[in-house]
Design a protein that fits this description.
With about 210 residues, this protein is of the alpha/beta class. It contains 5 helices and 6 strands. A 6-stranded mixed sheet has the order 1-6-5-2-3-4, sandwiched between helices. The longest helix has 27 residues.
Length: about 210
């Protein structure tokens, strides 16, 4: 019998070969995983570098944040397709400061191009906006969604974080698993928001 036909003589991967293969895979996957963990938790991130927004520490899950549709039906974002979400908190009836924040996030959304479908913007008010006001905002922001939540619920979400109260129109950036992880307001410009979300999209999955 030809030894080449004998299964017992087939060459098997050596320990060194298996180690080399694992090393190659790890060298690609681990930096991406590490970058995402650092960005999400802030652990190991040098102060004043990398992130443009303010990290919410610790991140908070919105799983039990009682969001409602404008008509009063429950809104469960975590049951929907995983997306990065900007929760825009107007601090009232979406006056000038809120409108400025809406404009900034809209321009960021547009500039994401083909990746825009992985991001969503929601205006989350403490009381339902009138139909007329929603129609006005919808005309300026076609992809904007509306939601309602009590301010007390937001206070509960942010309690024991480094930002227990948001005193002006602000935006919470929520990751694909539903964790609020970054805070922005009108002190941040569109380029800063865009730099952050592009980095996060790069190191997160796409479904």
């Amino acid at each position: 019998m030809n030894n080449n036909d004998n299964p017992a003589t087939e060459e098997k991967p050596t320990g060194a070969g298996r180690f080399q293969a694992v090393s190659v895979i790890a060298s690609v996957a681990l930096p991406m995983l590490a970058a995402y963990i650092v960005f999400r938790t802030g652990v190991g991130m040098p102060e004043g570098t990398v992130n443009q927004g303010e990290l919410l520490q610790p991140p908070r899950s919105i799983e039990h944040l009682p969001l409602l549709e404008p008509g009063g039906a429950p809104l469960d974002l975590l049951s929907e397709s995983p997306k990065w979400r900007y929760l825009i908190l107007p601090g009232g009836d979406c006056a000038a400061e809120c409108e400025k924040l809406l404009y900034t996030t809209r321009q960021v959304h547009i500039r994401l191009g083909e990746k825009a479908d992985r991001v969503e913007r929601l205006l989350v008010s403490a009381i339902p906006l009138s139909e007329e006001r929603r129609a006005e905002l919808r005309e300026q922001h076609p992809r904007l969604r509306f939601a309602v939540q009590e301010s007390a619920a937001l206070d509960g979400l942010l309690r024991d974080t480094n930002r227990p109260r948001l005193e002006r129109a602000s935006t919470l950036l929520v990751d694909q698993q539903g964790f609020a992880m970054m805070v922005y307001d009108n002190h941040h410009n569109g380029n800063q928001l865009l730099k952050d979300i592009k980095r996060l999209l790069k190191y997160s999955y796409d479904k």
